[in-house]
Amino acid sequence: MTTETAVTLPGGEMLTWSDQRADAGNPPLAALVARLVPPGADVLLAGPVDPAVLDALGGARVTGLLRGYPDAAVLAGRVDRVVAAGATGLPADEVYDVVIAAAGLDAVESVEGPRLGWDGVLGRLAAAVRPGGVLLLRLDNPLGVHRLVATSGWYVGRDDAEWTVGGVLDTGRPANLDQLRLRLDAVGLRVAGSYAGYPRPASTTALLATDELARRTTSGLFEAVLQESCTHGYAGRLVLADPARLAVDALYAGRAGDLAPSWLAVAHRPPAFDDECDRLTATRTPLPAAVLSTGDRAARIVEVVDGPHGWHWHRPGPVAVAATPAPYASREIARLDPAAPDGPVPDGRLLHSLLLDGCLRRDTALLRRLLRGYADWLTNQAGTDRLTGAVALAGVDNLVVAGDRFAVLDPSWRADEPLPVDVVLARALWRFATELLTGGYAHPWTSTLDAVGLTVVLGGVAGRDFDRAVVDAALDVEAAVRRIREAEHRDSRDAERGGGPEAGLRTVTSTDPPPGRHSYQQLRDAWLRQRDENTRLAAALKWTEDLLASREKALRRAEAKLDLLSGTVSYQLARLAITPARIARRGARAAKRRARAAITRKDGNRE
User: Region (Disordered): which ranges (predicted)?
Assistant: First the structure.
């Protein structure tokens, strides 16, 4: 690429408009682009794109098509050619091996030139795809999870970035994947695959193949990815409901693809001749089942690809090698393994879901079987009653169960310092107990338990008798792991809210809202639990006050009766009769004491 690239202005450029936003972008797209784009290919970037995508196009000849001149000026130093215009500014005779519209088609059309509409822009970009070439197109979902949990309607936006509002009322653009396939077929492109983008259109950290989402509705991998991406993707944002819970429920219903915030379609133009088919290998490149980006400070990309023995992890590009710590250097309790995950992806259901299902259905037999199986598996993994590695830090949300077999799903986080088995089990159960209580989930045990108490109960179900020292040690490990992971995570919002990641671990109760989430629904549920608890406490207080009032009334009646009796003639005569008897009894007692003392003296003199 050249260091100085002139910006071509064919007309229609928006001189003061910029489409670049402060969101995280789409890091998984870079790995997908690196897989699909061969070296030396001609690439057209239509609209704004994540900088990581530019890094993945190091061996290609890249042309940028941007409607905003400020964005074009920034891109000019990184690509071979930049055109600042709308879709009409692209020469009609130019064709490319790969066309990437990573921000959708709305970010391609300029308001300063002829308006083509969604179909018109698609037709112009499709015409720029060479036979045998590929088009990567993002489409935002008007009924995605991000819209369903938004606190404001999609139709009320008044910001500069929302001067074009896309919704289901606009029939000029597709509103689902089936409609998108029909539009692509109409312009001569065939969809080779499609991905569901989570958690938000402007910040995608997970690309999941839609056909796999529809087929593997109980996949522990997909559930863990949706839970993780939606939890971190909406941290610190005010939403109506928990997007992670909604996405996981959609997965089990076979609708995780339909409710995705955005879709990424991979379409190709059929080659006209065999030599054109041989020119590009992108159309024959197998697409991964998932492309994931971790939320760590150093963005890590991992793919899930299909192999002869099922899914396995694949790390595109070079893998960093962790430095070996010095023998006497102080080590943290947890560390991130840069080479993980690797190897086959374990199959099965997520232990978290099975336990949650057992709690909701009050199936104590299932809970006993799962928890005791988990405790026995931990014991079998330990060498001398202590655990290290990924097993020591994996919670129930990172373990899959297939029959009686347990396996760690993502072994990226590892413990170098050995931890007692009971501490590892107590930490995992405490995390699950906290979610049960703060999430408002129904369970078979009393509602007055706090997180520590419910942890002890779950330990008993697992066949372990936890004492206070074990739970305290588990909470110390949890606080240390949270501190390390928050320092590694680039969106550490919990620490910014104050108190640190370990604040309040020992005081979690059923009336607390879920940590790290700002959901109206969950806050309302927490308020209802607090109201019920206050009602119970008020009833107990009223019962105590009524009991004290009744005791006070009985005491007053007894005192009044005593006062009444003390003023009667019979009471005075009884006192006169009893007084001599009392004096005589005291005298008799004194005489008896003197007699005993005299006898004692005589016995002493005889001796």
Answer: 487-518
The beta-strand segments (E) located in 154-222 are 190-200, 203-209
Q: How far apart are CA 56 and CA 317, in angstroms?
A: 10
* Crossing angle of the two packed helices 468-488 and 451-461, in degrees rounded to 10: 110
- Please state the φ and ψ torsions of residue 262, each to the nearest 5 degrees: -150, 165
Q: Which two tokens stand for residue 547?
A: 């009991």
Residue 459 has, within 13 A of its CA and on its CB side, a CA count of: 24
The span from the CA of 391 to the CA of 412, in Å, is 11
* Spatial separation of the C-alpha atoms in residues 209 and 304, rounded to whole Å: 10
Tell me: pLDDT of 329 over 70.
Answer: no
| Percentage of the chain lying above the pLDDT 70 cut | 84
Q: Which residues contact 241 (CB under 8 A, 6 or more apart)?
A: 148, 149, 519, 520, 521, 522
The count of other CB atoms within 10 Å of the CB of residue 559 is 10
Spatial neighbors of 569 by CB under 8 A, at least 6 apart, are none
Check residue 558 and report its DSSP letter: H
What are the b/e assignments for 490-512, b being 16+ CB within 10 Å? eebebeeeeeebbeebeebbbbb
pLDDT digits 0-9 by tens, 538-569: 888 889 888 898 998 888 888 887 777 776 66
The SS3 of residue 394 is coil
pLDDT higher at 177 or 109: 177
Three-class secondary structure of residue 387 per DSSP: strand
In the numeric block, the tokens 């405490």 are attached to: 430
Nearest Cα neighbor of 97 from 337, 331, 283, 253 is 283
Query: 494 by DSSP, 3-state: which?
Result: coil
Tokens of 255: 């609708």
Direct distance between the N- and C-terminal alpha carbons of the chain, in angstroms, rounded to an integer: 125
Across the chain, mean pLDDT equals 83
Amino acid at 188: G
Per-residue confidence band for 55, with pLDDT thresholds at 50, 70 and 90: confident
Q: Mind spelling out the 3-state secondary structure of 12-51?
A: CCECCCCCCCCCCECHHHHHHHHHHCCCCCEEEEECCCCH
Task: Evaluate the omega torsion of the peptide bond into residue 515 and state whether it is cis, within 30 degrees of 0.
Answer: no
**Cα radius of gyration rounded to whole Å, the chain:** 36
CA distance linking residue 345 with residue 215, whole number of Å? 17
Instruction: Collapse the DSSP code of 112 into the 3-class scheme (helix H, G, I; strand E, B; otherwise coil) and give the result.
Output: coil
Cβ–Cβ contacts within 10 Å for residue 253, how many? 11
Residue 144: both structure tokens together: 């995605």
What span, in angstroms and rounded, lies between the C-alpha atoms of 48 and 161? 13
Compute the distance between CA of residue 484 and CA of residue 471 in angstroms, rounded to an integer.
20
**Cα dist from 5 to 40, 48, 83, 366, whole Å:** 19, 17, 10, 65
The SS3 call for residue 529 is: helix
Cβ-count burial of 74 within 10 angstroms (0-12 exposed, 13-18 middle, 19+ buried)? Answer: middle
Residue 600 pLDDT:
78
* Residue 314, strand partner residues: 303
To 10 degrees, what angle do helices 421-438 and 468-488 make? 70
The per-residue pLDDT for range 95-128, each reduced to its tens digit, is 999 999 998 898 888 888 788 888 999 999 999 9
Mean pLDDT score, 459-474 = 91
Cα separation, 256 vs 229, whole angstroms: 13
pTM score? 0.81
Instruction: Inform me whether the pLDDT recorded for 65 exceeds 60.
Output: yes
Query: How far apart are the C-alpha atoms of 213 and 359, rounded to whole Å?
Result: 26
